[in-house]
Design a protein that fits this description.
Oligomer: single chain
Number of helices: 4
Length: 100
């Protein structure tokens, strides 16, 4: 089966509006001529990014940063905050698992 190449970022806003208006994933997929799984993943990525923004974590662009790129203080603070949270979670997990 041939793969369908559709720029889902271009239709993301309209797909979210259709879902909030009460349409099902199947109806949205049929409207844009996509697979149901593509719509599910699109909405999942959108919700994940929204949760990160609400938590105060600014999403970064994927891939390697351009040459000469320097992070802002806010980005550095967010990275430190994320790493501290990871350390705390791992520490709690090891404590509950019976390890030091």
């Amino acid at each position: 089966m041939a793969r369908k190449y559709t720029k889902v970022r271009l239709i993301e806003e309209e797909a979210v509006k259709m879902r909030t208006s009460g349409k099902t994933n199947r109806e949205v997929a049929e409207h844009f001529n996509l697979e149901v799984e593509q719509v599910k993943e699109l909405l999942k990525r959108r919700n994940r990014a929204k949760r990160k923004i609400e938590a105060g974590i600014i999403p970064r662009r994927p891939g390697r940063p351009p040459k000469g790129f320097t992070r802002t203080e806010e980005e550095k603070d967010n990275e430190i905050k994320r790493l501290k949270m990871e350390n705390e979670l791992l520490r709690d997990f090891l404590l509950h698992a019976g390890r030091r």
